[in-house]
Design a protein that fits this description.
The chain is an alpha/beta fold. Helix content is about 30%, strand content about 25%. The chain has two domains: about 10-55 and about 380-430, Urease, subunit C, domain 1 (Roll); about 60-360, Metal-dependent hydrolases (TIM Barrel, Alpha-Beta Barrel), CATH 3.20.20.140. The chain has helices spanning about 80-85, 105-120, 135-140, 165-170, 185-195, 205, 210-225, 240-245, 260-265, 270-275, 285-300, 315, 335-340, 350-360, and strands at about 10-15, 15-20, 20-25, 25-30, 35-40, 45-50, 55-60, 60-65, 90-95, 125-130, 145-150, 175-180, 230, 255-260, 305, 380-390, 410-420, 420-425, 430. Helix 4 links the parallel strand 11 and strand 12. The structure holds (4S)-2,6-dioxohexahydropyrimidine-4-carboxylic acid (DOR). (4S)-2,6-dioxohexahydropyrimidine-4-carboxylic acid binds near residues 279, 307 and 309.
Length: about 450
């Protein structure tokens, strides 16, 4: 007689499993949401998922999304954003504070956390936003992934651009600081100078290489001066890569790159997508795109994010100057990378390092980012043979468009598990599943 399945246990059999040390064909046993054994022919006292022909990876952790909750649920809320994440194999996300109202104190943070517990189908963590005068809140808020500083203006009204304010934030406290590195004064100067240019091609000229480099250099100098943990968000230029290559030993600086900046490039992106391609910091020429890819491969850039920043198609189609910056991405980042792996440009182990292991390590998340005994069973099964085309209108993000519309990719997530529970299967999200708040050290 076969043993009765034990409630809450799952065995994933026959997959090729991306383990920290390499890929192996092993079974993975999950009990009470935790990986409890990895090995061959594990006892089948459980629900069995036959994953023959599939690859099992640690769930993707997207360390930068903007889910618009509170403030603009017609674009995205924590529920719809988390569903898009689940469909993209993303089991955890870190959400930015440029909401309306912005999340700049403990009260708003607690409200957001309570809301997330009710709405999110995957795991969640939140940044607290810096202003020139909320230092006490920044350092006393509990269990946040970090402090977000907009050094240059972008969507929303968060901005800390004065040197004295930046100095005060970097010099007080120990918590990770994540910067949107664009220099506000240079950006405004360029904006003035190019105010008569009405085409979107002005965008990367207003927010040019020097705008990014000057802000990144400033943040790096402050991090080195105060030995403060710094994460530079969405790196976009070869010049910044070179600067990071020259960092002294023992620095506390990490960085990330977005799939958009690795995939799209100017001038073609602006010609083809118009203001849909507008984001901050901007999409740049192939010189930068290629340099970012190389820096990622070389380990100068640590991880991949999406900066998922949904705006409605209607808003995005407005003329340059009126259209908002940002584009969705949480649902398409993993397939974009799997397609690259299929083309031989990177390995599944590298993808796992950039999209799961590194974000977990950089943000000091407990028990996430690896398939290892004792770790949370946040997992994604991918079919490396599946070919699909990204198509507007068929996405889970509420805005339901993608800058990658029409792109055919080989390699897709087919099943996503959060704490051992299947949240995405056969193209559908189980909206009853709930993620948990990520714990940070
Ligand atoms: O393009 C962007 N859009 N960059 C950001 O930093 C913010 C984002 C948004 O929230 O729309």
């Amino acid at each position: 007689m076969s043993p009765m399945p034990t409630k809450g246990t799952v065995t994933i059999r026959n997959a090729r499993v991306v383990l920290p040390g390499g890929i192996q064909q092993v079974d993975v046993l999950v009990k009470a949401g935790i990986i409890s054994a990895i090995g061959r022919d594990l006892p089948g006292q459980s629900e069995v998922i036959d994953a023959d022909g599939l690859v099992l990876m640690p769930g993707i952790i997207d360390p930068q999304v903007h889910f618009r909750d509170p403030g603009a649920p017609q674009k995205e809320d924590l529920h719809s954003g988390s569903c898009a994440a689940a469909a993209g194999g993303v089991t955890s996300f870190l959400d930015m504070p440029n909401n309306n109202p912005p999340v700049i104190d403990r009260i708003r943070l607690d409200v957001k956390k309570e809301d997330a517990a009710k709405k999110c189908v995957v795991n969640y963590g939140f940044f607290i936003g810096a202003t020139p005068d909320n230092l006490e809140e920044l350092n006393s808020a509990e269990n946040v992934c970090g402090i977000k500083i907009f050094m240059g203006s972008s969507t929303g009204n968060l901005l800390v651009s004065k040197d004295s304010d930046l100095e005060r934030i970097f010099s007080t406290g120990t918590r990770l600081i994540a910067v949107h590195a664009e220099d506000e004064s240079l950006l405004q100067e360029n904006s003035e100078m190019l105010s008569t240019v009405r085409e979107v091609e002005a965008h990367p000229r207003i927010r040019d290489e020097a705008v990014a480099l000057r802000a990144s250099e400033k943040a790096v100098a402050l991090s080195l001066k105060y030995q403060r943990r710094l994460h530079i968000l969405h790196l976009t230029t070869e010049e910044e890569v070179r600067m990071l290559q020259r960092l002294p030993r023992g620095h506390k600086i990490s960085t990330e790159v977005c799939t958009q900046h690795l995939t799209l490039s100017a001038p073609g992106c602006y010609r083809e997508l118009g203001t849909l391609a507008q984001m901050n910091p901007p999409l740049r020429t192939s010189r930068h795109r290629d340099s970012l890819w190389k820096a990622l491969k070389d380990g100068v850039i640590d991880c991949i994010a999406t900066d998922h920043a949904p705006h409605t198609l209607e808003e995005k189609k407005r003329p340059y100057g009126e259209a908002p910056s940002g584009m969705p991405g949480v649902e398409t980042s993993l397939p974009l990378m799997l397609d690259r792996a299929n083309r031989g440009e990177c390995s599944l182990l590298e993808i796992s390092k950039w999209m799961s292991e590194a974000p977990a390590r950089l943000y000091e998340m407990f028990n996430k980012g690896r398939i290892e005994v004792g770790y949370d069973a946040d997992l994604v099964l991918v079919d490396m043979e599946q070919t699909k085309t990204i198509t507007n209108g068929q996405l889970h993000t509420r805005v339901n468009w993608s800058p990658f519309h029409g792109m055919q990719l080989k390699g897709w997530p087919v099943r996503t598990l959060v704490h051992g529970k299947t949240v995405f299967l056969d193209g559908k999200v189980d909206t009853k599943v709930r993620g948990r708040e990520i714990r940070f050290a």
